[in-house]
Amino acid sequence: MGHVVDDDDATAIIDALERHEAPAACDVDGNGAVTLADLQLAAANSGKTQVDATVARALPAAAAKAAPVGGTVADPDALASVVNGGASVELSPVQGALSEDNPVAVAFELAPEGEEAPLIGGMTVEAPSDNAIEGGYVEYDYVGAGGEELTGRANLVSAPAPAPFLRSRAASAATATVDAGGAIVIDFGGQIAVKKVTLTITKTSGSNNLAEISKVEFLNNMEDRIPEPDLSVPGSLAAVAGSKKFTVSWGACTNVTGYELSLTAPGKDGAAVTEVKRTTATSLTLASFNGGKIKNGTVFHVKVRSANGEWRSPWSEEVEVTPKAEKAPDAPENLALTGTYRGISASWKNMEDTDSYHLFYREKADGAGSYTEIEGIASSSYQLTGLKDDTEYEVYVVGVNEIGKSGPSLVAVARTANVNPAQLPAYRQINTKDTDGRYLSHIVSATYGRGTMVDSPLDAASGTAKSALGLFDDSYTSYLQVNDWDEGGYYPGPNKGVTVTFDEPQELGMVSFAEVQDGVPFGKVNISYVDEGGAWKTADASMQMRTGANGRKYALAKLAAPVTATKVKVGAGRAWSAPNVVIAEMRFHAYDSLEADIMALYADDLHLELKDDVTAASIDVLQQRLDTPDAASGEFHPYRTALQAELDAARKLLATEGLEGTVHVHNGISAKRDSSRNLGIGGLNAWQPLGAAAAAGDEIVVYAGAAGKATGSSAPLRLVLSQQHAEGGATKVLATLKAGRNEITVPQLSSLDFEKGGQLYVEYTGASDAEHWGVRVSGATAVPALDLYQVADPAERLARTTAYLEKLEAHVGGLAQFHEEHHAKGGNASVHYAYDEKNCIANATDIMLDQMMCSVPAQQILADAGGGSTEARAERLLASFDAMDQMMELFYQHKGLTNSFEKNTPAAVVKANSLPSQHLNIRYARMFAGAFMYAAGNHIGIEWGSVPGLAQGAPYVLDGDGARVSGSLFGWGIGHEIGHNINQSQYAVAEVTNNYFAQLASTKETNASARFKYADVYDRVTSGDEGRTGSVFTQLAMYWQLRLAYDAGGAYETYETYQDLLANRFFARVDSYARAPLTAPAPGGVELSLGGGEAQNIMKLASAAAERDLTEFFARWGLSPNEDTAAYMAQFEPETRAVCYASDDARAWARANKDAADVAGKDVVEASASANGSKVTLALGTDATVGESVLGYEIARITLADGKAQREVVGFSTEGSYTDDASALGNRTVSYEVTAVDKFLNRSAAKALEPLKLSGDGQHAKDGWTVATNMASDQDVVPPATDDDPDAPAPVPASGRMVDDDPATVFTGTSADADPVMTIDLGKPTPVTALRYTLQGAAEGAPLGAYRIEASLDGEEFATLKEGRLALGADGTATLYFDNGEDPWVCTYDARYLRITAVGQANHPLSVGEVDVFGPSGDNVELTEADGIPAIGVLKSDFEYQPAMDGQAARSIPKGSVVFTGSYKGNPAYNVVMLYDEAGNVVGGTDADGNLVASQIILAPDPGDALLGETSEGRWVYWIEPGQLAGAKLPAQVRAELYRVDDALTNVGQRLTSDSLFAGVPEKLPEIELRSGASAAAND
Fold first, then answer.
1. CB neighbour list of residue 608: distance below 8 Å, 6 or more residues apart
2. Could you give phi then psi for residue 522, rounded to 5 degrees?
3. Better pLDDT: 219 or 151
4. Is 109 helix (H, G, I), strand (E, B) or coil?
5. What's the pTM value of the predicted model, to 2 decimals?
6. What whole-number distance in Å separates Cα of residue 1113 and Cα of residue 1115?
7. Burial 101-123 (b: 16+ CB within 10 A, else e)
8. Given CA atoms 1332, 1337, 1341, 1346 in this order, what sign does their dihedral have?
9. pLDDT (tens digit, 9 = 90+) per residue, 495-541?
10. What local confidence, expressed as pLDDT, does residue 1290 receive?
11. Per DSSP, what are the bridge partners of residue 554?
């Protein structure tokens, strides 16, 4: 029994099609592949038993009638056989060759007139693989859903793999793909009623493939003389490692046009990644790979191969290279220390180019002592152990690599754990010591929820489950440990926390507790109690970490109001990163109304106003209470210092002196307002300065208040601390504030051995326009702050700046004294340092502008305010601040961001394109290795020396045309770093797109003010290179040119509304569409979608903004669109202007000369070209009608291959000439098109120049060559003595004239008694094949006669290459090709030294004009004789080119044949000559089987017993025999193409190596006689 075909079979076939697999079970028709035909077979036989593979198709073959269409010739029986699955059929045009104008076609009729059309989803057409279909289209007639008759069409496109047939899809446009196996797969996009399908073919793969149209025979028994093919595999591959780069070089190959370099290395995920680089050079320096910079230590595997058109050589042998550091590493950064029990945990940044680290440490108190060194640390962290208890240590780290050691990191300090018991406060303590010395008075029981009591005998003996009495035993060796970061502090629960029952109700005010050793601080406490009704209630409590007199920390939880209860539960939590919660001792404190009574003095939350009944006497009473210690413990109130500040403030208010420092919070600055917007930028924060700085360990009070907000209610405010002069800008959110009084202990953010602390900020976290909060800080150091946010009135701005300057002067003037009194002599160890202006936390100021906040040293801002009056200095500062506002407005306008919109603008548009609600923030920070400034996180870091520049800006002033007249917008660095934050993320490229803003801020709209060079830009856009350029500045020009081409106004112009921006600013449109892709134009119905990577995104966005298809522009910059991008771009009209040549100068001229004449489409170019070897010099110009409008000239090089023209843009010149170095082409024929480009970027009509033949003769450049000789010459020069060289200066020999590239500078010398010898040092080992001697015109000496040429690699041992007697030609030159003395072939030798001996010419003057040395020069073909006359004619008599010999009959060219003959240089075994006419057709055409009608022979000297080799002057003959001439029309012109193939017997692996100029075919062909065994032809 066979298998029943069902839906599972169809599904399996579809899966195989989509995976491009071919499992045998899915190969229904048994043809070895899984195609759409298999799916058709399965569908047609669903439910049937499959007996074998020959089941019927879904559409019966009889239902399809095939017939040729139009001028197509086909065998009807064979055509019917194709439909029935039989043999193939040949289709051919009635006459002429297959082409787009002369196609073949066949129609498949599925439903004759009057019959119902079958529903089908697709069809397949198989084609022979040896003549695959490459071009054509499919037309189909079908019946629409409404019964109407419709016609569709799909062009044939090639697919790299079999086209997938999707399982489920909506009906869509039909596709016709040619898969890798040559099959045409037609997919109708769904089931439709098809009546007829017509397949039209315009091209097959058999056109000009030598392996298909030519036959190969070797005559005269030469088959055994075929050498191994020269596959031009590059040799001498070498890779030299550098630091973060490496250089690869290889030997040059002949007959190639370039090379491909393969690089393989681990990618970002560790998997191997391979990139292929293309170049025409023989060396390449690589500094980037896989989209990033190369890192030292990465192992690269490198190989190279040659390329010529589609041909590729095999890969070379692989080499390995590992870039490595060339210097000692940079000093380690970000050293952070944490004290532990008798140890210190150290970590630091893992630095590049660092193999290991050395750590140094010592006790800080031993400042003069030596450090202990720990070597060979492999990671970027280390745990010091065995240190002293409670001792401060200094630590630094050094990096090490094979080059040496880095400098030291900054020194950090940390203190080992304090093992002393924490000193909990005893003020109004409830659970005092009992008679056993335990703090259990009034405590009946204590239990814990989770965890374990560790080492607590009291609990072990209690007999109570989960007893926690050990927390009150006055011992830090017993403790509660919960292996979780929270035990009911953040997340209360019935089984969390410590529950204590008292013997009677207690009025609680505070709870204190401590752990065994100081660890991660507690961050949250939750206190609950059982009320009188027996219900659990949660008390309002806050918590603060405090430090006792012995340095140990403890937690002090304070209730907002007293609680009277018998049972209390205390929950506590740390940060989530903490491993556990540990509590060793706990105390309860009775309520004291003193704090509440002092707070009751004030009428507002900000404590800026006293109540009406406050008197000096009432304040005195409170003062007395504050100064009275607790009677039982003798301790003062735990918050005595803070409460004293409140009383002092009250006295000041009572004396009507007022209090300063209240900050009114701007509700428009908010991260929440930006959180739902797709801005695509970063680096912002919503901080607002409080005009205060605080040191680590300071206990400060922050007051917050707003109208209608109840004291104690949650406030949408966060308190932020920033470490002064930090590495990486260390910051921390300290607390979420509440209305009223917030007590904060300032934490330590850095362990570096500098002052610890910094500026304080408030962050508004709401988004309400109705909230108006005020914040004031008490207990911190006041620092100057300037708030100009949304202050528009110039007078108000100046007034605020003047007041700020006065505070700044006073503050900076008193800094040193303040530091001495409050820091150096103060009690806070965090700032207990000698005064250092760069690190004092009080040397700080904040300046808040509309879009920028500057947080920098006060002294440096003041330093650049200059001299003069306070008013003048304030004006100078304000001008710089105005310039910063102006620059940010300009930057954001170029991004399409503004807060001004036309009336009735949709809310979505306003939301997407409004300015950020947060600020950029320039902060004073320490630089990391190699940085001058940086952008990271939510700030831009600048150092001490860069701060004064913030006060040096000047607002720009524009003229009536929008051009800048004056002004300065800071330096390149600030714009560069701002750009890092605000360049649009969807297309951002690090160090490139951010530079757009730096260029924008510094441009003078001239070429000279561009950071890049336009000469480099033009080289790039005419190079044909793929991918991004290695220069970030040159790459910047791609974006800058788009601005130049499509911006409407000047670079500095700003606009009133968003709509104005969109109309005038190119990148405003680009960035707007990036933020809201669906708002981009889609004229063809293809919506903009992003996500294909930055390159694809910018191509789409730029085309949308220009409303032009910018494919050509981006191709010039090396970027290629993928299918999705191409589809989006294609719906726009192609850009015809030459945008890739846009320049600042050109745009400025065009704006000023809008009515000047342009060159668009005009025939204005005047140009000519001349070749010198492989270099072509073009003279460029235009006629007088274009005036000064011409920007430059685009140079396109035209070559012919397979009879078809290939156009390549190779240069752009703004001068009157251009030199094209086409040495990579070898001996090819080239022509040029010159197009003028005007300053409006229009292109003129192209000027076509006459073809030229290049001479790729392999001549070596003479850089660094020297010549030594035994000849004396009167031309030798002895320079006069000078002060620099007073003692007999060395003679300057004239022998250098022999290699100075000037034949007119003739050397003449004489050797006495010995043959003259000239030794040329080529500087490095060089492949040599020939030497040319030149002596033109009359000379004092005789030319070289008898000679001997020898070669050496070391200058000591020489081998003879050639001997003979030299005879000069008419042009005064003689070229000597080297051979091995045995075979008649040109040989290549490696030599550094060439020695030329003039045999027998001693004592006779010898003259040399020039000596040139040649290497392998590549193949060459010529069609004309030396006199320039084409050797084309009718053969006068039979020419026998092979006599009869063993195994081979005589072969000859018959009389009457049309003969073409010429010369070639190459290898006769591997060269093939083809002739083409002016239309690109093969001369003579091909027969019905696709074979050449014409014949050809390659003539070569008989090598005897040797192999066929390279010949410098061979002959070829191409002929059409008389019988094939009937009705044939000879072309007017012909040209020869010389191919080299990889297989001498099959002609496989063809590459074009040379071609000739066109030669005219005489109207009356002359008779030609070919001599027997001829190596030359004679015209009769």
1. 602, 653, 658, 659, 662, 776
2. -70, 140
3. 151
4. strand
5. 0.77
6. 5
7. eebbbbbbbbbeeeeebbebbbb
8. positive
9. 999 999 999 999 999 999 999 999 889 999 999 999 999 999 999 99
10. 65
11. 546
- Name the nearest CA neighbour of 782 among 837, 842, 839, 824: 842
Average pLDDT over the chain, rounded to an integer: 88
Whether the CA torsion 196, 200, 205, 210 is positive or negative: it is positive
Is residue 1473 scored above 80 in pLDDT? yes
Q: Which of 707, 753, 758 is nearest to 734 (CA)?
A: 758
pLDDT digits (tens, 9 = 90+) for 1100-1141: 999 999 999 999 999 999 999 999 999 999 999 999 999 999
Please compute, for residue 147, the number of CA atoms within 13 A of its CA located in the half-sphere on the CB side.
0
Q: Whose structure tokens read 């193999």?
A: 355
Residue 361 to residue 74: CA distance in whole angstroms: 93
Provide the token pair at 1088: 């903009």
* CA-wise closest residue to 763 among 729, 710, 712, 722: 722
Nearest to 167 by CA among 63, 286, 24, 18: 18
429-441 average pLDDT score:
94
Q: CA of 1489: how far to CAs of 166, 212, 213, 1203, in Å?
A: 39, 9, 8, 20
Residue 381: helix, strand or coil by DSSP?
A: strand
Task: At 284, give phi and psi (nearest 5°).
Answer: -150, 135
In angstroms and rounded to an integer, the radius of gyration of the C-alpha atoms of the chain is: 45
Work out the widest C-alpha separation in the chain, in whole angstroms. Answer: 141
Containing H/E element for 157? strand 149-158
Q: Is 43 helix (H, G, I), strand (E, B) or coil?
A: helix
Each residue of 1319-1370: pLDDT tens digit?
999 887 888 888 999 999 888 899 999 999 999 999 999 999 999 999 999 8
| DSSP-derived secondary structure for 1254-1285 | -----BPP-TT-EEEES-B-TT-B-PPP-SSS
User: What is the per-residue pLDDT across 298-321, written as a single tens digit (0 to 9) for each?
Assistant: 999 999 999 988 889 999 999 999
583-619 pLDDT per residue, tens: 999 999 999 999 999 999 999 998 989 999 999 999 9
Task: Retrieve residue 1076's tokens.
Answer: 């809201």
Strand bridging mode 845-848 / 785-787: parallel
873: part of which helix (H) or strand (E)?
helix 870-894
Q: Which residues of 1421-1432 are buried (b: 16+ CB within 10 A; e: fewer)?
A: bbbbbeeeebbb
